[in-house]
Amino acid sequence: PSDILHVIDPIVRGEAKVVYGSRYLANATQDGSVIHRLGNWLLTQLSNFFSGQKLTDMETCYKAFHKSVLDRLMIEQPRFGFEPEITAKVSRLGIRIREVPVGYSPRSWHEGKKIGWRDLCNTVWCIIRYRFY
Q: pLDDT tens, 50-59?
């Protein structure tokens, strides 16, 4: 939670309209699982390909938006479809997403890390769908 100030700071200073906190910038963290790290990297690369962004961490929970951007977005997806949907829709508005480093303590399955194969497939579908819709 303390990283949220770093995420909103570029918006407050007028330097960005959208900011994502990246767990991978400046070695901010290492995810607990190689599978999760690889999956996140692949999803981020696929999103970058379709969105034209150059993100290192699309699936981050730290995201901040200027109100003028939020007023132009209609979000449909629950769960893990939210990240690719909002990334694609922001990109279609021609807005460059800025990233800042954030810390991260990975959760275990028992602590709440409940992402599975169905979520992965839905995320890929959303990356492609919202690029064109």
A: 999 999 999 9
**Interval 103-128: pLDDT, tens:** 876 655 555 556 777 888 889 999 99
Q: How many domains does the chain have?
A: 1
Query: 11: domain range?
Result: 4-132
Say what the alpha-carbon torsion angle 66, 71, 40, 78 is, to the nearest 10 degrees. 140
pTM, whole model, 2 decimals? 0.87
- 8-state DSSP, 104: -
User: What number of helices (H) and strands (E) belong to the chain?
Assistant: 5, 3
Sheet of 18-22, strand order: 63-65, 18-22, 98-101
Q: CB-based burial of residue 121 (10 Å sphere; 0-12 exposed, 13-18 middle, 19+ buried)?
A: exposed
Rounded CA-CA distance 87/131 in Å is 9
- What is the domain-level CATH number for residue 118? 3.90.550.10
Asked if 21 contacts 101 with a C-beta cutoff of 8 angstroms, the reply is: yes
Q: DSSP string of 50-87?
A: HH----S-TT-S-EEE-HHHHTT------GGGHHHHHH
